[in-house]
Amino acid sequence: MLARRRVKRVMVLGGEGLAARLGGVPLSSLAVVGDDPLLEVPMAHRGEALAIAVDTGLAGADAYDHLPDGKRPHLHVRGVDELLSLVAGLPLPGFHGPVSRA
Q1: Domain for residue 40, yes or no?
Q2: pLDDT digits over 35-64, tens only?
Q3: CA 79 to the chain's CA centroid
Q4: Residue 73 belongs to a domain
Q5: Quick one: pLDDT at residue 1?
Q6: Whole-structure pTM value
Q7: Total of domains in the chain
Q8: Residue-level pLDDT at 40
Q9: Does 64 reside within a domain?
Q10: Which tens digit of pLDDT belongs to each residue from 8-27?
Q11: Among 39, 48, 77, residue whose Cα is nearest residue 60
Q12: What is the band of 77 on the pLDDT scale with cuts at 50, 70, 90?
């Protein structure tokens, strides 16, 4: 028999739900980074965010070639390390820490 327990309300956040909880940050101010041409890139486009595709994971370098221009990522990099190299040293409004490669 299961013991009776108090259960707090649980809310699973991901994608746009998570972004909407970032204290009023508009989705268009965010970048969505991912490796799935069917998930992160369309999510970014729906929220008018910057779509950044990485080749590490589900998708390879040619995974987005068949998509029409409006559905392709805005930026396509080999991996997160390349993305970090691109943004290292750039001023990132609202970000209070150095961008560095761990």
Answers
A1: yes
A2: 888 888 998 898 888 899 998 877 777 888
A3: 13
A4: yes
A5: 41
A6: 0.70
A7: 1
A8: 87
A9: yes
A10: 444 444 555 665 566 667 77
A11: 77
A12: very high
Structure tokens at 31: 């970048």
* Residue owning tokens 């080999």: 78
How long is the chain?
Answer: 102
Range of the domain at 43: 26-80
Q: What is the 3-state secondary structure (H, E, C) of the chain?
A: CCCCCCCCCCCCCCCHHHHHCCCCCCHHHCEEEECCCCCHHHHHHHCCCEEEEECCCCCCCCCCCCCCHHHCCCEEECCHHHHHHHHCCCCCCCCCCCCCCC
Burial code (b: 16+ CB inside 10 Å, e: under 16) for 61-94 equals eebbeeeeeeebbeebbeeeeebeeeeeeeeeee
Structure tokens belonging to residue 85: 């190299």
Q: Are strands 31-34 and 75-77 parallel, antiparallel or unpaired?
A: unpaired
Whether 45 is in a domain gets the answer: yes
